[in-house]
Design brief:
By secondary structure, this protein is mainly beta. The protein contains one helix and nine strands; from the N terminus they run βββαββββββ. The chain has two domains: 9-70 and 128-142, Chitinase A, domain 3 (Roll), CATH 3.10.50.40; 74-123, Beta Barrel (Thrombin, subunit H). The protein is elongated, with a radius of gyration of 19 Å. The relative contact order is 0.30.
């Protein structure tokens, strides 16, 4: 049996859940997820969990937020005025907006968390920032 190792391409099925048991993502209803181990294509904790698994192995691993999407950072939550948006744009809680990156900065994605007559509150943290994640991982293939 092949084992996953750094810089090998692997295919896995996974189900990711939060501490309350709610599932936030799963590959089970689609093709296995493919990535190259150790190249930063997936969160650090997921990468580490796959190393040394053999094809057919199934494991459940808890990945702390530090090894996943990092801590929730309050400074990434900010308020802007409605004048910052094009006229006629209907903003709703849960919408994701992407801003242009300025002077060599990458574009920023933020989620609308509050809309009032005076302001719009945006959260630029990853939706899973600050959360510990549990993954059930099944190694399907190693190339």
């Amino acid at each position: 049996m092949s084992e996953a190792a750094s810089e090998k391409t692997v295919k896995v099925h996974y189900t990711g859940s939060l501490d309350d048991g709610s599932v936030f993502d799963s590959s089970r209803e689609r093709e296995p997820f493919e990535f190259v181990v150790g190249t930063g294509q997936v969160i650090n904790g997921f990468d580490k969990a796959v190393v040394d698994m053999a094809v057919g192995d199934v494991k459940t691993v808890k990945i702390l937020s530090e090894e996943a999407y990092g801590p929730f950072v309050e400074e990434r939550v900010f308020e802007v005025g409605h004048d910052q948006f094009a006229e006629g744009v209907k903003l709703e809680v849960g919408m994701q907006l992407q801003s242009e990156g300025g002077e060599g900065q990458p574009p920023m994605v933020a989620t609308v968390t509050e809309v009032t007559e005076e302001k719009v509150v945006l959260d630029a943290n990853h939706p899973l920032a600050g959360k510990d994640l549990t993954f059930e991982i099944e190694l399907m293939e190693v190339a």
